[in-house]
């Protein structure tokens, strides 16, 4: 006898309890603390903050723990939490010139004012599994040097002095906020950058890679990549002057792109820009390549129809929270639609067979 | 800023605005239906319904135009304190509020763009009274026909003729509201 | 009916007041221009995109503490996602919930219009995955927006006509496009085309929310809604040619259920409230316990 499926509520409660037990894993293994995640899985925390659009390492670490290490799920938790936060105002633009630099490299000049600083990078590690890490109790130390608090000028400023690179005019226009306004296309550069910086790292990486392989090539050099902390200030109307409310770590990448000139612009170098929360240099470099590829129209270049040049394609598909939600929704019941398709296919088949018989 | 400016808001915004919105939604969805909204005590010449509609729909992101005697210091102060809406010229307004005569000429207000017809102003019209008499209304939201005491006919016919562009109207008197979206066709009595 | 008290940790109906005002303004413009998709700044909700975030935001903006809420998915009140959304609103808005279509003041639905005719004062909120009816013919938003502006719907007619040329009929069985008040072509969400005739002339307000795609559109009561067709191939609302095996209804949309591994099937109403109501009233179908005799 057929019994209609009931008890959805109990099934959901039981599933959640099971999930919680799975998250904890073997109880004889010590539980992971949020501070351990924040300190020892910092790059995962950075990614969750960047794509979650919320700078809070503790919350990001909590989200990673709750999400069992599924970073997209963790980003989702942060985004949903972020939506509920009241807005007190907007900060002043951060100044990366005044960054306390941990890492700074230029691929265009061998040496330059402010110097090259390798910083904490994987770059020249040999990718050999370090079995010593499997044993516990390790506490490495690093050499330190006195901090240099002098501002570090940007490479592009040196080029700009000679008129060799397009000027990027500063603007006091408030940038659009895609978390508060519906996305409108065509998008201006500020909106595009906002969408890309919170876009999925894998998607942005692949888009950038495709430009390097010829799908909208931008001839990019890393003019400068810098990672470090910057202070965040906010105007407090009651006080009449800005006060520093904290500091954040960011990664900034400026590419210098070869440009032969176009109908509207003289031959000069052009710019791609990436700025991401935390130490996220893969994302920052990829972002600057995608940014540059999307600028073809304003620079008077021709589009070859490459995916990375297609603003609507990139902006509408870079958000992993939108993407994963819609992708995974196809596991929800579709009985009704499927039933209507079943009937249609049966009817079409019956008619096709009848026609075939009539013909024979 | 006077004490009057600081009073007269919602005492329970989530609940009061939810009831007010439902009534406004029904009034737009069923042109010619008179509904009651309350909760606000704004300064004259705004009525209870006018103030309640503004508290429910307007905020710091919605430029408001005050027309005629609605453009007075007590109303400006009240809106600034409770709503925070920028007060602007008709051309920039998302909402406008005033008596029918002072809202004219209507051509000053945004009727939306052909690709974004939603970007049109909503006019909140201060009325002395509202009744189901006068103009005949037909169109979406109306099963056969309804009557509504509109201040005139031709302006609403011109407005409807521009559909999908056009202005949307919310008539308020005392604590009563009636909606007239651009989709409604208006005939004289 | 079951009511819970609102969780004080959240604002009424979860969303903050500013967000609700933004959604409410979009809903009013959607009512003013029936069938036109109003962009709105959809928020990230605590459930995934594609799982009803648009419908949930519309419902949150419409609910009052006095409402009686019904949530259905595939016509059923007890599917897991319907249960989840209903619980969300019971917790964050403290509203009463019901399974009875006639008792509900707000109904959030995915993929169905209830069988029991709706009445004035009700709001039917649809969850919409892809609001743009032209999207699968033209992927670009900039282009489809222009097509709506210019009422250039030829592409849609060509698509439907190609169906007829190839299959002898229009091969669209759900999300069947409609024209609203002779102006905008609209996607009714993935309801079966069986439900299309209920869209027009409906006494309730119908609001469609697409969260991921950031669009809200609406049908005021008694709006003229026409399913696209051709004079020589008129639209037909179709369903499985069976009666419900539990309540015997011959007029309701049916789910097909596989009951054994020998190809045995039964057909049951997709609208669980409708089916239960008929069974309570004594109606029986082919496989009902009573009709089957002794056994149970």
Q: Could you walk me through the main structural features you see in this protein, from its secondary elements to its overall organization?
A:
The complex is a heterotrimer of chains A (360), B (189) and C (296). Chain A is α+β, with helices and mostly antiparallel strands and 360 residues long. Chain A folds into two domains: 10-82, no CATH class; 96-119 and 148-169 and 181-323, no CATH class. Chain A has helices at residues 8-24, 34-40, 42-52, 57-66, 71-83, 155-161, 189-197, 201-212, 281-294, 311-317, 320-328, 335-359, and strands spanning 100-105, 220-236, 241-257, 270-277. In chain A, α2 (34-40) packs across α4 and α3 (42-52) packs across α4. Chain A starts with 7 loop residues before the first helix and ends with a helix. The model of chain A is unreliable at 1-5 (pLDDT under 50). With 189 residues, chain B is an alpha/beta fold. Chain B has helices at residues 3-6, 13-29, 48-57, 73-82, 100-103, 154-161, and strands spanning 35-36, 64-66, 95-99, 111-113, 116-120, 122-126, 135-138, 146-148, 168-173, 176-180, 185-187. In chain B, β4 and β5 (116-120) form a beta hairpin. Chain C has helices spanning 17-32, 53-62, 80-93, 141-149, 154-167, 272-280; strands at residues 38-39, 68-73, 96-97, 106-110, 123-127, 178-180, 184-186, 205-210, 215-219, 225-227, 254-258, 265-269. With 296 residues, chain C is of the alpha/beta class. In chain C, α3 (80-93) links the parallel β2 (68-73) and β3. In chain C, the strands form three sheets. Chain C has a seven-stranded mixed beta sheet with strand order 1-9-8-5-4-2-3. A three-stranded antiparallel beta sheet of chain C has the order 7-6-10, with no helix packed on it. Chain C has a two-stranded antiparallel sheet with strand order 11-12. Classes of the chains: A alpha+beta (360), B alpha/beta (189), C alpha/beta (296). At the B-C interface, α2 and β5 of B face α1, β1 and α4 of C.
